[in-house]
Amino acid sequence: MKIKSFYYFIGFFLLVFSLMIVEFCNHESTRESEPIKYRDFDSIIESDTLHVVLECNSINYFVYKGNPMGFQYELVQGLCSHFKLFPNIKVINNMEKAFQELAFGQCDLIAMELAVAEDRYPRITFTTPMYNSHSVLVQKKGKNLITSLEQLDNKTVYISKKTIYAKDLKRLEDSLNINLKIIETEEEGDEFLCNLVDESHIEYTVCDINLAKAIRNFYPNLNFDLKISKSHQVAWAVNSNSVVWLKKLNEWISNLKKSGKLRFLKLKYIDNPVLRVYDYTKEITGFSGEISKYDSLIKNYCKSTDWDWRLVSSLVFQESRFNPNTVSPSGAFGIMQMMPVTARQFGIDRNSSVEEQLKAGIRSLQYMDSAFAPYVSNKEERQKIVVAAYNLGMAHFFDAFELIKKYDKSTITYKLVFNSLKRKRRPEFYNDPVVKYGYLNPWYVNRFVTEIYERYNAYCAVFPEK
Fold it and tell me: Is 295-462 the same fold as 41-120+243-273?
């Protein structure tokens, strides 16, 4: 009887275990079949944020004297301004990774110089072409210079993975009946490979003619003269499911081309001979490895605080463009643009060194941070409010806190604070008993904060680690 019961138990156990396995498999199957998330125009607009991938190089996205710049960067800024969106920029110099981000709904747009080609990557659709371009061979100058395509026979050419260059080179192989060893690398972008050629780590690579024009002066030992492809169209890319977003983008691009803005930006970043003659590589973040020459000081004084040195650097740029001799009409002075009264509170004056001014400015940020902490518990929201207060002064923010407490009864955020500051334009609010510091029209404050955080976002993209 005991043996029979034992077999019943084993049978029951196996049945339950089998059902669990079936359920697990069904769950896995369901999970794998879940549709890939993507956003179309309405959801992008509703979020107020555009998730965009850019490539960091000497033409499309860089930081010059602390200021984010670049051909594609300015186009994205114009796009976001048109649709009233905040650009959330992610730097990816690997083309395959960029396509993966877009295909799997991790971004809304790839804003790079993408050669239009059929079936280039699954679930990717190109926008209306912006202009035409072509590919060139990158090699070192000297006696072994290749001057005709036939001389590429039996040569090894390194190219970035998932670029159009592989098709260009294979087309050459077929048409000229030559043999090429094509190595697709995981390296971070075309300019990185150009640098490897310059340093003699590799002999040959390929890049776009526009990048070649922009970096020619940076690499005087490199030759970019040999054209390896026919002219091709250049565009941006969106997820194939974002049908309305694609339509809106194409309309914007069409108007951009008609306005002359696209041509102007090409002249500014690609075709401007004055820009090419002036070698500003040492001042471009990503090549010099710094935002400004004061990075080490800012990092040092931020080290013992909760403040990100990149955010402080963005604030300093906003205030003085890193110029310690700046004096405003209102009397604010120095690299941190402190008013004389505030400066005295933190022990500095116009004769103080840049180091002393930076130290005092960061101390003032800490002071306001501590003063606002009882009202705002979230660090990120509080720091955004502190940045606003650095421009406006602290007093009006205590009024805003009291108005929120009285009328909103909500957790204090920067958005709520700014809305309460705007209330102080109206007599029923600036005459309210809880308001101590009277009338205010804060129209410029939000712009100040927005520009600082947009630049901070750009700094973070170039310097992803604190």
Answer: no
